[in-house]
Design goal:
The complex is a heterodimer of chains A (165) and B (231). With 165 residues, chain A is an all-alpha fold. Chain A is built from seven helices and no strands. In chain B, a hairpin with a 2-residue loop joins strand 5 and strand 6. The termini of chain B are far apart. The chains are: A mainly alpha (165), B alpha+beta (231).
Chain lengths: 165, 231
């Protein structure tokens, strides 16, 4: 009785991944969930534009990325500029086991936040979401060489920021 | 592709077999490249460890709710057993109902085609909504007003949910008429096509949840109820 149509069904299965990507785009958890919700709403409204048989995940990621650009980019830049660099404070000082790993994760997330948007989205799509270069190039409407060079710059900057641990 | 890009493409498994083999040899022979490869592999796994917990955590209810199609009948009996409507939701529902009542009362009082009429402090379905409640079946949707679910409330009266272009609502039989129990405006900026796909307004779902006795009617029961004049 409680069943969704195949489209909604597939969309539901994508929600966890879409949330993850939203959190990579927007460091703020509430913004990320708002973005995910807006993406779901847009996907449902635009259902007729999705070609059955094509990848629904790429299609939804593209919707999310475009919504993010439309609505939140200016705000993110502001947040990123003002983000306190508190993550460095406790490094090496907290003796509790496991803390070091947790700090590393916070550092890597904070570093992601400081990447320029165009590098962050490529890093998130390829290194976190596991898409291939070609898929990302089609999703973002960019030449594959641009995707590849943004990825190099993004991951190099990230590594420099998290330190050569 | 420059050397850097080629190195990373190799790291990401993006090179063809022969180019990959070539890069493999170069990296093996170059301690600096080897160290870089290790660092970037570690960075990749750090990134995944940082973000994967988000994908592994439960999806919030609000997000899941956005996916429920209108025509689908939720098992309200079970839902009711599982949770009771919080007071806040009831007040929200009442406030929304009042707001619509006032809106309709002040803006379209003379309009004979207004789909809701106020009489003696009560709101009744009229025009297109009344017609739909009287005649439409959820199994055979047509027109602007769609019927969602039909059930008996705790007073034994038949209640039906509907979706109209401007909003959705619940009406129950009262002395041979459809009395509005709740009317919820469509969220700002969302057309009816969205609502049709996205499912029942959460306030409406909560209202149904709080009034339903037993289960929603199936197709046969809905048809039978119509034939008996919704008594």
């Amino acid at each position: 009785m409680d069943h969704l149509s195949p489209f909604e069904d597939q969309l539901a299965a994508l929600l966890p991944r879409l949330r993850r990507f939203a959190h990579a785009l927007s460091h703020d958890a509430a913004d990320a969930d708002d973005l995910t919700q807006a993406t779901v709403e847009r996907a449902l409204r635009s259902k007729a534009q999705w070609e059955p048989g094509s990848r629904l995940d790429s299609w939804c990621y593209r919707i999310m990325r475009n919504l993010w650009i439309d609505t939140a980019r200016a705000r993110t830049r502001k947040t990123a500029r003002e983000a306190p660099e508190e993550e460095g404070l406790s490094v090496g000082e907290d003796p509790r086991p496991g803390m070091e790993a947790a700090v590393d994760l916070r550092r890597v997330m904070a570093a992601m936040e400081r990447l320029p948007d165009e590098q962050r989205e490529v890093v998130a799509l390829i290194l976190v979401e596991g898409f291939g270069y070609r898929e990302v190039s089609e999703m973002l409407g960019l030449p594959i060489g641009t995707v590849s060079s943004r990825l190099v710059r993004g991951r190099t900057a990230l590594l420099a920021m998290v330190g050569e641990a | 592709m420059n050397d850097d890009e080629k190195f990373f493409a190799w790291l990401d498994g993006e090179l063809g077999p022969s180019e990959a083999a070539e890069m493999e040899v170069r990296v093996a022979a170059d301690p600096e490249l080897k160290r870089l490869a290790d660092q970037h592999r570690a960075l990749g796994s750090q990134l995944r460890s940082a973000f994967d917990p988000i994908a592994d955590s439960p999806v919030p209810q609000t997000l899941q709710a956005a996916l429920r199609p209108t025509a689908q009948v939720i098992d309200f009996g079970a839902a009711k057993r599982a949770r009771s409507m919080p007071a806040v939701a009831q007040w929200t529902a009442m406030a929304a109902t009042l707001a619509i009542g006032i809106f309709i009362g002040t803006r379209v009082p003379q309009e004979s085609s207004a789909p809701v009429q106020a009489e003696a402090g009560k709101l009744y379905a009229a025009a297109s909504i009344n017609r739909a409640l009287d005649t439409e079946l959820a199994s055979a949707p047509k027109g602007d007003v769609r019927i969602g679910i039909t059930y008996r409330d705790s007073a034994g009266e038949i209640c039906r949910t509907f979706t109209a272009p401007a909003g959705s609502g619940l009406a129950c039989r009262n002395s041979g008429r459809w009395q509005m129990k709740g009317l919820f405006a469509a969220p700002e900026g969302q057309g009816s096509d969205y609502r049709m796909a996205a499912g029942m307004d959460p306030n409406l779902a909560a209202l149904v949840d709080s009034t339903i006795a037993g289960e929603a009617f199936d197709e046969a029961a809905e048809k039978a109820a119509k034939e008996k004049g919704w008594k």
